[in-house]
Amino acid sequence: MDYTSFDNYMKQRFGGKVYRLSLSTGCTCPNRDGRCGTGGCIFCSAGGSGEFAAKTDTGHSGSSDDIHADRNYLISHEQITDSVKRQIEIAKTKVASKLSRSFAGYLAYFQSFTNTYFRDDKEFAGVKARFFAAARHPEIVAIAIATRPDALPGYVLEMLASLNQIKPVIVELGLQTVHDDTSRLINRGYATKVYDKAVRDLHAIGIGVVTHMIIGLPGETEDMMADTIRHIVSTCGCAAPGHAGSVSDPVKHSYENLLNVGSGSGVSVISPVNSVGTSPCHSTSAGSGPAAVIDTDLKITSMPDGIKIQLLQVLKGTRLEEMVRNKDVTLHEYSPEEYAALLRRLLPLIPKKMVVHRLTGDPPKNLLISPLWTADKKRVLNYLHKALKD
Predict the structure, then answer these.
(1) What is d(CA 168, CA 153) in angstroms, rounded to the nearest whole number?
(2) 4-389 placed in CATH 3.20.20
């Protein structure tokens, strides 16, 4: 099938193979700590999808609230830089056996929980320093930051725009589904219009968005999954905004013109910045939030929009496990053949200019309940690639 894979795009852009390094900021999630909700999304593990992340200098991977009680790792920029270097070295050992002769560098992937959700100024300063330390590392070629669309206030957009002048940045948003009834069932904690606004805001500062969607959510049909892809494509991939003007306003330039161009002189954000404690999850309004304005002549090194597709997996210790056990929901357990056939029908909906970052998840084997065949990621990918070529 004809689609643009993450691997192929990165080889074309950077001249060789780029490997993800899963790193941690130690952030939590507003859908866990009570700001938006509690318990998190029903499918999310205790590690917030960060079980493979290199540890922070507190010895944690960002999976526990006790990181925030221990602020020692925020003492100085020098200590933070050293901490990030250590995380990178630890993460490099996890992919060392995979390195090919075409090695071109690493993508620093801040994966677990909500990496732009800060509970005070000190926490924001510490995480910001971590992002910039990673961006300045000579072996890092790009930065990926996973977050929620309701955790992108003006001061965060300003920080991301500045970071994007050092290394290209992509922001990953966990939409999962365009259907708000399903989103309430999975306890996503925000309306789809909040995602739409976040994409506009990120495009307005020249940053590409990678959207996560899940195949096989409770009650969703194939047509509903196709609706999610079409919404992601229409919001991100085909008519993406450009830069210039205030965030969420109509823009003057095509976002595509920002792709693969050299970095410029910097970003000028001229609107007031919200205080750190007031922005995440404060509203589900699509029109709220501060406006950031950037230089209309600015050229930004940008990454294209993308999509991550994952089959729903039931993990131990999640609310989903409990719901399945209590028969509160009924899930269709796809076979490898069914899943490959479904992808063959869905992938043609994605234009080639959108990068497909993932076709399957990588669950912790000790937590996986079902489908068990997804535990061997390498074998699954080999099967899917073959099935999609046939």
Answers:
(1) 20
(2) yes
